[in-house]
């Protein structure tokens, strides 16, 4: 898989792309990541890449011209532009993108990019959440990292398919997990997890996922068919919480 990252700040990626799952995916030749310094396509002696906004407004806008020059001399993959107004990135979208042979990521900076770049070259606009960053470098890194997890770099393939937001997770947040030691700072691992009873462990983890989702992301329940037992789990949690308050 080829991933071209079009950025004004190529130095940003020196460390992140050479560590963790991204580095492993590169070593396995599962991904070929190219950092393109868009300043090379800038205008004049100073390689100008931005200009003032038509209609007035604060800040500078990255120009259409630099992207036009790039795409006229380079192959175009499935092209993504990162924008707060794009569709929110989901696990399903990441999985879909991981199956592409070639991705081109357009990274904005300053106050954004001339809209005509998106109109002409982008296949889709993606947002990573309801907040604003200084540029597209972090969203692109996030996407690349998430994609690399699908490239066979993890020791246990179940680490991917059972993660939160994967289809196998049944639309719930993942339950809490523990490792050794069994007890530390007056905190113990739940006894059920060392019982060896796989049915009870599975039921416990389901209950914890239900409660965790209820507390942190109750909006996710609209896409889940809750069982009577799931509803009882929530009911018991609320009763227990009420009793602690009283």
From TrEMBL:
It is found in: Cytoplasm. S-adenosyl-L-methionine binds at residues 108, 128-133. The keyword tRNA processing applies. It is an enzyme of class 2 (transferase). It comes from the Bacteria. Its EC number is 2.1.1.228. GO terms for cellular component: cytosol. Keywords: Cytoplasm, Methyltransferase, S-adenosyl-L-methionine, Transferase, tRNA processing. Pfam families: tRNA_m1G_MT. It catalyses: guanosine(37) in tRNA + S-adenosyl-L-methionine = N(1)-methylguanosine(37) in tRNA + S-adenosyl-L-homocysteine + H(+). Its main location: cytoplasm. One of its GO terms (biological process) is tRNA N1-guanine methylation. GO terms for molecular function: tRNA (guanine(37)-N1)-methyltransferase activity. InterPro entries: Alpha/beta_knot_MTases, tRNA_m1G_MeTrfase_C_sf, tRNA_m1G_MeTrfase_TrmD, tRNA_m1G_MTases_N, tRNA_MeTrfase_TRMD/TRM10. Residues 1-222 form the tRNA methyltransferase TRMD/TRM10-type domain. Specifically methylates guanosine-37 in various tRNAs. Homodimer. Belongs to the RNA methyltransferase TrmD family. This is tRNA (guanine-N(1)-)-methyltransferase. The gene is trmD.
